[in-house]
């Protein structure tokens, strides 16, 4: 059997939210690494007390209980992996992996059991839900009632904030079940209470995030920030990392505390607590403990009386209480000799520190990026000036960070550092082709090929081509009509490369043929009138016979009042449900009676429908005749108007008209009969006879 088992895409349930990561089981114990924060949970094999396999929302899950009462839940396993896990637990941990399903009856009455850090609500032997008592922020009691309040989870879209338990009274004297319940909860709950004296107090420390000056009180289990406006209580269990970073001016120091979950004020979340110290500021510190307690608790890491620089005292006390290492900058040195690089991130200037295992940017907003979550880095030319460059980092989750306005003198040092850490450089070929010297980089603007600049040029060309295509398309799709007899001069000026002063259309045509202009005039014919949209469907005729009701509806109308009297105050929906149940339970003989009534109603409807459709057809024929007559009368009126208009306007020469007339226009005139033309001309007293079809055609030619 293998000594280790590894599972990817496993989810750890922490305070109601699921954090994805990698789970590794070995002989020494169980290790889970959070993909988002990099936090590692290590459970020693000797600490494991129980393992439970159960079905959950994300497939199957594993619940581990330790001997000191802690509970760890991991979800995302497949059903086929049970045998492999069960054999591994037997062989290496000497534990039987028990299968235990959750109760899904939906009852709200059961038994509460306290086991370690867990409150379990059970029905019989099956658990319904479990509450980690470390999530409880407050516990209050009432008459036969206990209320639990929880810490708000910022990672979850919906957070459970309160649960109330009803505790029935018992006959036992001297024991209050409500108080006993509350004491069991409070003994394991994460209720932060500033009781007792602080170990030490640091007065008026300058804090960059959250901004302001705060008194920091150090308690055994939490850190208390007391300011003029806000107070924050930070448990040491939420501290992920500690950083001590020198400022570029060599006169100040940053002390950064990374928090998960973050402290919050309204909708603002602070994942980092950043303190700024002056190196010249000293302090003498006395711990509020006797020497024996200090020696027993801190094992020589702290003493009762200490003195030194203020930033050293704060970092030393925090390291001892949180029990985490302090991260400092590594071997990186910039062009100016500092261990950081001045740059901008999101329109704010700050300092980027290359560390041994990541990058950290301070201070607004603070960013910490580990090397193991970086997909690649990229060196890009500055967008505004060639005297600076941008440093881009993209993570495996797809998040991109761009640190801009870095001085070009820092390029060689930063590239050497990234290359030494074996990070994937996106444009490595470009940078290796150039000498790794900031002087060479400064002279590479004209000579060297720049991939970023070429990409920008290509995007600019594509935008220009798209703009030209759109302008050409919009120019061709004009709606103006083209009349050669009227707009000949304008056409020559617009489309002819060698425009002539002649106004004849023939010269303009010959010029256009000889010169072959780039753009060609497009003759757009007069648009034909659009067809009328079909009329919308007519509404329902109120005189039409109504459809017959079904047997059930006939019975319901007859029985509605009876049901209401039998069930006073019944709602409409409940009445419909009750009626459906009664109809379903009705005997076949009674239903047949209502079926006969429904059949009679259907026959009456069909008979009335036939009479209605016969009358409707007569009405339709009369309306059609009426519309036809109106159309004929309207047509005669239009013909009289057109003939009178053509006869009143006299032309100076035969076949020549003031405006150009197309063949379509002439053919439309031919639609009228010769007799109607004569009658119209006699009535109007026209001086010239109506032109024949042959004359019209020759004139148009």
TrEMBL record:
Biased composition (Basic and acidic residues): 532-544, 609-620, 630-641
UniProt xrefs under SUPFAM superfamilies: HMG-box (SSF47095), PH domain-like (SSF50729)
SMART domains, alphabetized: HMG, Rtt106
Pfam families per UniProt: HMG_box, PH1_SSRP1-like, POB3_N, Rttp106-like_middle, SSrecog, SSRP1_C
Keywords carried by this UniProt record: Chromosome, DNA damage, DNA repair, DNA replication, DNA-binding, Nucleus, RNA-binding, Transcription, Transcription regulation
Biased composition (Low complexity): 497-507, 643-659, 686-701
Name this protein carries in UniProt: FACT complex subunit SSRP1
Organism, scientific name: Helopsaltes ochotensis (Middendorff's grasshopper-warbler)
Record lineage: Eukaryota, Metazoa, Chordata, Craniata, Vertebrata
Gene from which this protein is expressed: Ssrp1
């Amino acid at each position: 059997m293998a000594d280790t088992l590894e599972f990817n895409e496993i989810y750890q349930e922490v305070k109601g939210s699921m954090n994805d990561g990698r789970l590794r089981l070995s002989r020494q114990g169980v290790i889970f690494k959070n993909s988002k924060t990099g936090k590692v949970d290590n459970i020693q094999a000797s600490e494991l007390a129980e393992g439970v396999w159960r079905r959950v929302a994300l497939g199957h899950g594993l619940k581990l209980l330790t001997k000191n009462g802690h509970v760890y839940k991991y979800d995302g396993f497949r059903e086929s992996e049970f045998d492999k896990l069960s054999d591994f637990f037997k062989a290496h941990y000497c534990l039987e992996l028990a299968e235990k399903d959750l109760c899904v009856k939906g009852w709200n009455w059961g038994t509460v059991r306290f086991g370690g850090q867990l409150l379990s609500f059970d029905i019989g032997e099956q658990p319904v839900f479990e509450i980690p008592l470390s999530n409880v922020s407050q516990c209050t009691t009432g008459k036969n009632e206990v209320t639990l309040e929880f810490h708000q989870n910022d990672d979850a879209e919906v957070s459970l904030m309160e649960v109330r338990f009803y505790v029935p009274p018992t006959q036992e004297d001297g024991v209050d079940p409500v108080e006993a319940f509350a004491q069991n909860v409070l003994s394991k709950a994460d209720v932060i209470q500033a009781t007792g004296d602080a170990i030490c107090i640091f007065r008026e420390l300058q804090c960059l995030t959250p901004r302001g000056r705060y008194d920091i009180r150090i308690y055994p289990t939490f850190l208390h920030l007391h300011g003029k406006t806000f107070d924050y209580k930070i448990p040491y269990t939420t501290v992920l990392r500690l950083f001590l970073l020198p400022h570029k001016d060599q006169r100040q120091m940053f002390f950064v505390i990374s928090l998960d979950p973050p402290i919050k004020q309204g909708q603002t979340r602070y994942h980092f607590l950043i303190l700024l110290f002056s190196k010249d500021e000293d302090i003498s510190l006395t711990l509020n403990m006797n020497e024996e307690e200090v020696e027993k608790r801190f094992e020589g890491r702290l003493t009762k009386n200490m003195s030194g620089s203020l930033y050293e005292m704060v970092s030393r006390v925090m390291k001892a209480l949180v029990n985490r290492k302090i991260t400092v900058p590594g071997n990186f040195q910039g062009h100016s000799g500092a261990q950081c690089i001045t740059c901008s991130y999101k329109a704010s200037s700050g300092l980027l520190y290359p560390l041994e295992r990541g990058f950290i940017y301070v201070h607004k907003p603070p960013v910490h990026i580990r090397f193991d979550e970086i997909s690649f880095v990229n060196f890009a030319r500055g967008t505004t000036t060639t005297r600076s460059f941008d440093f881009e980092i993209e993570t495996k989750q797809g998040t991109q960070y761009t640190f801009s306005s870095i001085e070009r003198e820092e390029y060689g040092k930063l590239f050497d550092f990234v290359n030494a850490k074996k990070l994937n450089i996106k444009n490595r070929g470009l940078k290796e082709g150039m000498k790794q010297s900031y002087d060479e980089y400064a002279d590479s603007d004209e000579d060297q090929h720049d991939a970023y600049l070429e990409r920008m040029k290509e995007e600019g060309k594509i935008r220009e081509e798209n703009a030209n295509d759109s302008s050409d398309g919009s120019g061709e799709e004009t709606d103006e009509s083209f009349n050669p007899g009227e707009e000949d001069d304008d056409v020559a000026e617009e489309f002819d490369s060698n425009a002539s002063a002649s106004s004849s259309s023939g010269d303009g045509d010959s010029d256009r043929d000889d010169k072959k202009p780039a753009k060609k005039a497009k003759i757009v014919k007069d648009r034909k009138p659009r067809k009328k949209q079909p009329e919308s469907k007519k509404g329902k005729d109120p005189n039409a016979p109504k459809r017959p009701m079904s047997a059930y509806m006939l019975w319901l109308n007859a029985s509605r009042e009876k049901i209401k009297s039998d069930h006073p105050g019944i709602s409409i929906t409940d009445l419909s449900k009750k009626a459906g149940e009664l109809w379903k339970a009705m005997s076949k003989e009674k239903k047949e009676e209502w079926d006969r009534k429904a059949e009679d109603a259907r026959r009456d409807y069909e008979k009335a429908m036939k009479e209605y459709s016969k009358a409707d057809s007569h009405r339709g024929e009369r309306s059609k005749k009426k519309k036809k007559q109106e159309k004929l009368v309207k047509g005669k009126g239009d013909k009289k108007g057109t003939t009178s208009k053509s006869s009143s306007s006299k032309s100076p020469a035969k076949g020549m008209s003031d405006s150009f007339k197309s063949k379509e226009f002439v053919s439309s005139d031919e639609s009228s009969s010769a007799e109607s033309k004569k009658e119209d001309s006699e009535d109007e007293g026209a001086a010239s006879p109506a032109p024949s079809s042959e004359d019209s055609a020759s004139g148009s030619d």
